[in-house]
Amino acid sequence: MNTRSIATVSLSGTLDEKLRAIAAAGFEEVEIFEADLLSFNGSPRDVSDLCGELNLKICAFQPFRDFEGMPEPQRSRNFARAERKFALMHELRTDLMLVCSNISPTSLGGIDRAAADFRELGDLAAKHNIKVGYEALAWGAHVNDYRDAWEIVRRADHKNIGVILDSFHALAPGFPTGPIASIPADKIFLVQLADAPKLGLDVLSWSRHFRCFPGQGDLPVVTFMEAVQAAGYRGPWSLEIFNDQFRAGSAVRTATDGLRSLILLQDQLAQAPEALAPKSPTLGTGFLEFAVNETKAAELSRWLGQLGFRKTGAHRSKDVERWSQGSIDLVVNSEPDGFAHSHYVTHGAGVCAIALDVGNARQTMARAEALQARTFYQPVGPGELEIPAIHGVGGSLLYFLDAAGNNWDTDFEPLRSDAGADHLIAVDHISQSMPYDEMLSWLLFYTGILDLQRLPQMEVPDPVGLVQSQALIAPNRSLRMVLNGSSATRTLSNRFISEFFGSGVQHIAFVCDDIFRTVAAMRARGATFLRIPDNYYDDLEAKYGLDNELMTILRDNRILYDREGDGEFFQIYTHVFDERFFFEIVERRNYQGFGAPNAGIRLAAQAREARPVSVPRV
């Protein structure tokens, strides 16, 4: 069975910090990157001893650069250098050295010349019981294709010389993967894995800054690994990631994400030691829970009432209320202790938990646990329902409810309401803000556990920077999640994080079937909405040629509009509650997007209403 490995270059921190994070995540093997060893305050044997304590096997030492095809005196010097590295590897207790294809402008081309160099290196390596793996860099001076690297290895014809295959170097340039299957399994010494988003960059810059874990990018890594499997390779699957975000973020989080990506990839290819529980169908949002104190609870309840929600339940033993409309259930928790109270103390008023209706809660929980999600348990009172939960974005909770048979509402005493007819139907989408460098992590979290599909990432203009927005959608469209992050410190998304101590739900959209009737009913109850400038409506009229009656009602109600083909989208926003979160009301008419062209208009309007940020004087 293939073991799971990662290169130390993939993580932030010192070498010992990286190794501890790698071991804690559950990896079995590790590649030691030479730069990490050179900066380590200890001997190679100390590194080996630490790996032994952590139950980590060092599967490779890398990289050895600019070797093959060099003229004298550099050629002789390279062999002396290699022998020194072999001695170092004995101290590390590893027997595989990675040699990447030469990028030196002084190197000489020629497959036979390179093969001769590797044959001689193989003789030297054999004296030290070392194996040498040759990897084609996509920007190599003479060898940039794994097929040429394999031909050099084949002609070298030495038992200590093999090829190393890297998914990025094969897939980023668009090389076919089929020929991999014809390489003898015993000549593939290591397989390295990396994904990447589609970017219009030169391959070197693309590789050095934007690699990511399998499943986080757009490269066909599964197809690559199918070819590797066809070759009969049984060695480690090793992650080698060069990514600025990863090397600046938490080593523990990155290592956990890396292992999660390999578990998912192995499961896709039926190579996991234990098969994951299959993804259970996602059937919508069960409830959203808001953590507040007593004062904020009263304010929020009044606000919900203006939006047409009615109080339908009071918790049998806690200061918790249930508010409902259509299939939407909102829980307002002002209990003075417990998880919700802790969340309120830390983050202020806001969503502390999302409950999702799934086909099988137990199955979904088992999958989440296998993918390293942190489970959550809280004592429940007599007669109260224990709902399976894991920790989610920003320390919030993600509950799983069986769509049939999990009656979480039995914890509530039903209340009757004389409120009018419902106008809102369901939760349309939930938007979460997070640090930009955590977006890939939560993308893998959601798509790994739930049956959610990625849409292309978009850039949304905030008045003071760009916000990256990633939508995730269930195949049946019962759940839409939007992840937002920005590297600009003053955007609304980043202020939400910096001023309220972490990530979380910033925006909840509810769908209705007649936005004009819905908004009229809300205004009649005292609701007010975000002010959209007249300039927007002047442009809208010119852009789409809408009739005067529709333009008048859009303008009078401050409703935004977008069109995709035959589809139409209407949206309106509330003001922000306690500087923390806001609601959106939408109507969809054969429209599947999120009104992206209007996002900048909304952000600018919210920026005008937001509390000013003090800017340091220069």
CATH domain topology of the largest domain: TIM Barrel
Structural class, from secondary structure content?
alpha/beta
The CATH superfamily of the largest domain appears as Divalent-metal-dependent TIM barrel enzymes
- The mean pLDDT is 93
Rg result: 28 Å
Strand content: 15-25%
Note the overall shape. elongated
- How are the strands of the biggest sheet laid out side by side? 14-15-16-13-9-12-11-10-17
Number of strands: 26
CATH architecture of the largest domain: Alpha-Beta Barrel
Per DSSP, the total helix count is 20
Q: Uncertain regions: pLDDT < 50 for 5+ in a row?
A: none
How far is the first residue's CA from the last residue's CA? 59 Å
Overall tally of domains: 3
Description of the structure:
The chain has 3 domains: 4-268, Divalent-metal-dependent TIM barrel enzymes (TIM Barrel), CATH 3.20.20; 282-414, 2,3-Dihydroxybiphenyl 1,2-Dioxygenase, domain 1; 424-609, 2,3-Dihydroxybiphenyl 1,2-Dioxygenase, domain 1. The protein is 34% helix and 25% strand. Strands 14-15-16-13-9-12-11-10-17 form a 9-stranded mixed beta sheet. Strands 18, 19, 20, 21, 22, 23, 24, 25 and 26 form a 9-stranded mixed beta sheet that branches. The chain has an 8-stranded parallel beta barrel with strand order 1-2-3-4-5-6-7-8, surrounded by 5 helices. A hairpin with a 4-residue loop joins strand 10 (310-315) and strand 11 (320-325). Helix 3 (44-53) packs parallel to helix 4 and helix 5 (111-127) packs across helix 6 (146-156). 47% of the residues are buried.
